[in-house]
Amino acid sequence: MSSREADGPLLRGALYTLRRKCGKPGCRCATGDVHESPALAYPVGGRTKTMTLAAGDVEEVAAALARYRAARDELDRAADAEVAKLAARAAARRTERRR
């Protein structure tokens, strides 16, 4: 098991509050007090999907989103370092050819 698996699941997306009216004429939302629920917007095949969440899931989802961002940042730093190494080798070859 990798250390990332031990840390917990990863989720890509964004948490937000979904606000909507149910359409029932006698409901409180008809006078402007809309219904609110936590939701996750996440990409699937180039489109954004939305999933409403139970209040008890928000903390777990937020943590999984944070782990994903940290893992992505770590991968980006590693890739940037490799690009820098490759660029340095290319520059060294150009310098050697000029001699």
Describe the protein's architecture and organization.
- It is a single chain.
- This protein has 99 residues and is α+β, with helices and mostly antiparallel strands.
- It has one domain (3-98).
- 46% of the residues lie in helices and 23% in strands.
- The protein is elongated.
- The protein has helices spanning 3-7, 58-98; strands at 14-20, 35-44, 47-52.
- A hairpin with a 2-residue loop joins strand 2 and strand 3 (47-52).
- Strands 1-2-3 form a three-stranded antiparallel β-sheet, covered by helices on one side.
- The chain contains two helices and three strands; from the N terminus they run H-E-E-E-H.
List its salient traits:
99 residues; alpha+beta; 3-stranded antiparallel β-sheet; 2 helices
Strand line-up in the sheet with most strands: 1-2-3
Number of strands: 3
pLDDT < 50 stretches: none
What gap, in angstroms, lies between the N and C termini?
51 Å
State the shape: elongated
- The helix tally amounts to 2
Give the helix proportion (percent range): 40-55%
Give the tally of structural domains.
Answer: 1
Rg from Cα: 23 Å
